[in-house]
Amino acid sequence: MGEQTIIRFERVTKQYDNDPPVLANVSFEIERGKFYTLLGPSGCGKTTILRMIAGFAEPTEGSIYLNDKLINRVPANERQVNTVFQDYALFPHLNVFENVAFGLRIKKMNKKDIQEKVTQALSFVNLEGYGEREISEMSGGQRQRVAIARAIVNEPEVLLLDEPLSALDLKLRTEMQYILREMQQRLGITFIFVTHDQEEALAMSDEIFVMNKGKIEQSGTPNDIYDEPINRFVADFIGESNIVPGRMIADYQVEFNGRQFECVDGGLRPNEPIEIVIRPEDLEITSVAEGKLRVKVDTQLFRGVHYEISCYDDSGQEWLVHSTKKAELGSEIGLHFDPEAIHVMRFGETEEEFDRRLEAYEEVEQHVR
Questions:
Q1: Helices H, strands E: what count in the chain?
Q2: Would 94 disulfide with which of 63, 98, 259, 279, CB 3.0-4.6 Å?
Q3: Is there a single domain that holds both residue 53 and residue 187?
Q4: 92 and 210 share one domain
């Protein structure tokens, strides 16, 4: 375990009775002072991971470490971890100050220190002067910030956030994303955030764990996850994608739609079946003569900053395009894309296999150079 590692899961499985495992042999490390997001659909195991870190659930198999100490059976109140829940779990009979001070009073801290720490915590969440307000008088966004203040006032090493923005409207949700990210950077606390919203994860995180069916499909920075999805699930879940079957002719050369195209990927076997990913924003509308693909416009929606255009080629393959240009319904257009826009995925490849292939390919590249 590295010096910067604060949490480590080693082959952790969680299973209830004879049901399929909620988590299946999961291993990962969390570094100190970063913003992590567990991203995935409902039932994928992300909240289970949060509950096991917090001490609300124990693994069926495997080990969990906090600061290099095994914590499988350490009670929740003895861990330097606090949780912000989806419903905030505030006390309606206490005002804002007393909600934030609750944990400090349980610890029997003196009155002066409580006043100082609560005031500081409310300042961190931009709620100075709100101490005497009743919870019923607070908006949804303000209640969420009270819940965060109550969590950080205890100075945890890790702050766990279980879909805390899901009940907010879009504008307030976006505002809270900025506040949470800025707060994490100011405090330097490790944040572990659970969401099923991929835009939220991309906007806020230092690192994302994409989860599916009790396993981590891929982990990496938002750019890594978006630009280099490891398989169809990740490509589909993170943003919108055009995914088509193809063949790796050779390094830097792929075939799909009956034509060969240059790309920037390699390291696979010649003529190996692959899947091609091209993001909608990487497709440029041009004339039929100048396009690499010839398609017919089927539908078009205005999304504010771009048009979302659905097209079909002669084989019946749908192509989704995000463009600032408007297209005429029923017209034939060309689609242009650069070699860098083509991402190659091997069928059913795991993250470990992807990492090994990429490492081997980079070694070959260095030798050639």
A1: 9, 20
A2: 98
A3: yes
A4: yes
Whole-number Å distance between alpha carbons of 73 and 59: 9
Instruction: Locate 247 and state its tokens.
Output: 């063949």
Residue with token string 């609750």: 102
Q: Are residues 25 and 153 in the same domain?
A: yes
* Distance (Å, whole) CA 185 – CA 190: 9
Q: Tell me, what amino acid is at 210?
A: V
Distances from the Cα of 179 to the Cα of 61, 84, 129, 173, 315, angstroms: 37, 15, 18, 10, 47
CA-to-CA distance for 326 and 113, rounded, in angstroms?
61
pLDDT at 239: 85
Over residues 252-272, the mean pLDDT reads 92
pLDDT tens by residue, 69-110: 999 999 998 898 988 887 778 888 999 999 999 989 988 899
The CA distance from 177 to 180, in Å, is: 5
Owning domain of residue 330 = 284-336
The strand order across the sheet containing 284-286 reads 284-286, 332-336, 293-302, 307-312, 318-323
State the Cα–Cα distance between residues 276 and 227, nearest whole angstrom: 12
Q: Is 317 a member of any domain?
A: yes
pTM for the predicted model, two decimal places:
0.84
CATH number of domain containing 323:
2.40.50.140
| CATH code assigned at 269 | 2.40.50
pLDDT attached to residue 363: 62
Total domains in the fold of the chain: 3
